[in-house]
Amino acid sequence: MADNTVFDPQKLQSGNLADCEEQQILELAKKLCRIAAEECGENGFRGGIRPGNIFVAEDGRVAVGKAGKAGENGWTKLELEYMAPEMFWNGEESAAADVYAIALIMYAGLNGGRLPFAEAGEQSAEKRAHALRRRMSGDSFPMPEGVSEKLLEILKRALAFSPEERYSSAYDMLRALWEYCGDEPEEIKRREPAPEPKIAPAPEKKSKPKPELKPAPSPKQEKPAPKKEAPKTHTKPETRAAEAKPAPVKPPRSIHEKCSERRSAIALAAICLLLVGVGLGRDSININEPSPVVQTQQPSAEPTTIPSTEPTQTPEPSKAPADVQYMLYSEDISWQAAEDSCRELGGHLATIKDEADYDKICQLLADCTAQYVWIGAYRSDDGQIKWVDGKSHDFYAWDQGEPSGTDSYDGAAENYIMLVKQADGTWLYNDSRENPMVQYSQFYSGKLAYICQIG
């Protein structure tokens, strides 16, 4: 394709999917499959396949712009709506994610321009968010009407919720489309991605200047206005980037079972605090599932004082802080239930006052299998981030685009802080709803944990 070809966004074929005939949709899908197969990276992922990023030349040739990346402003609406679930929740990029995006374009073209679960007519932001939530939660798609069974089989496989059930690559999907259309199969080879196509300038429109981006607020700053962004596994998915698949779910225990098991442990935990450095406390505690991982700061060795026959003065109370214990529990519970559990043990959810505390927490989580970990921070009624110890701490390690304040799916408040494991193994702050298990249990089950701090 010549470098001087200009792709006009006003002639975007996929922008008028409702007006396309089946044959047009099939031709577009085959061209997109070829582009995804030829321009993919080493991991098989090409990305960027969505309306608004597909350009059609005068002679019918098709090009796809570069793939987007979630930045400070999050993903755009079209990027979210044509994104595969595993990429949406965990940032997993693969050839199967391209297959899903191409299949969604086919689906919309065969369904009067509507994506799965979308109603006919004008779509409000709330309805679009509801449809997106259902797609990302794995609900079964209602298939377009008036489409042959063989083509529906291709569509169903390409839109499977699990990437393992889809076509393994865009080329495999292309071969299925060739067979359906009666085309002769061809051999294609992966090549370096083409440079981003030149785009003719769109007609000038008067618009208001965009507001300047501001850094994430500290506890002393005013609450920022909510921004639209991708939910994290979070929350969103929130969020925002764990690559692991959900671990087998352990049957959750009721709060009454936990209370009965921990009552005997409370006294032992108190003894443990008194005997820090001796080693007796750690060996004596025996708490059934979930088993805590205890990290204790050991006091420095002091020289033994030689007994004196002279009367001694009463020592003044030490102003040094008591030694701190961190207990890590893997359990699928809400922020408030985690805080209540820590209170039963005589402590509270872990607070992070500075970078040193943050590093200790990250070391504790080095071998943790959980992806989301509750800590003792929350947003109060006045919009400020506060900590359960009642103190003001200025250290915050927010993920990009956080804190968001609300879920971009349904506008639910996100007032509780967790640490979210990143793809590189680091942990960053993210705000979440109080109990994400209610709406997104299939994504959070077996991945939640919390850290209790005693002392």
Oligomer: single chain
Average pLDDT reading:
73
Strand content: 5-15%
Helical coverage, percent range: 25-40%
What about the largest sheet? 8 strands, mixed
The number of helical elements comes to 12
Task: Give the CA-CA distance, first to last residue.
Answer: 67 Å
Low-confidence stretches: 1-15, 202-322
Shape: elongated
The helix/strand order is: EHEEHHHHHHEHHEEHEHEEEEHE
- Indicate the radius of gyration in whole angstroms: 27 Å
Structural class: alpha+beta
Number of strands: 12
Write a short abstract of this structure.
29% of the residues lie in helices and 11% in strands. It has helices at 22-38, 77-81, 85-90, 95-110, 125-136, 149-158, 170-181, 255-274, 280-284, 335-344, 355-364, 437-444; strands at residues 6-7, 54-56, 62-64, 198-199, 293-296, 325-330, 348-349, 372-379, 385-387, 416-421, 427-432, 448-454.
